Amino acid sequence: MKNAVYGALMIMVGALAAPAAQAQGYGYGYAPPPPPPSAWEREAWQEHMARREYRREFWRQQRELSERRAYEAGQRDAYRHGQPAWAYR
């Protein structure tokens, strides 16, 4: 008898929980698509990406310049020490 009551209780809980999982008739985990961004949001995002691209290009050029300076300094040091550049450390 105890198991029958417990089983019936579990069936009722399952039946009551099933509709809650399908929230508002959309189905579980469904959300309607977001509205498209407004014009000012789109413009702000484009400006953000432009600034980001500018920064990336600036630091890429800085990195190339510093690599070139280091390479030239290594060449000078090798020449001063009278060694070929590939053998100088």
Automatic annotation (TrEMBL):
Q: Does the keyword Signal apply?
A: yes
**Segment Disordered: which positions?**
67-89
Keyword annotations of the record: Signal
Residues in the signal sequence: 1-23
Q: Where is the composition biased (Basic and acidic residues)?
A: 67-80
Q: What is this protein called?
A: Uncharacterized protein
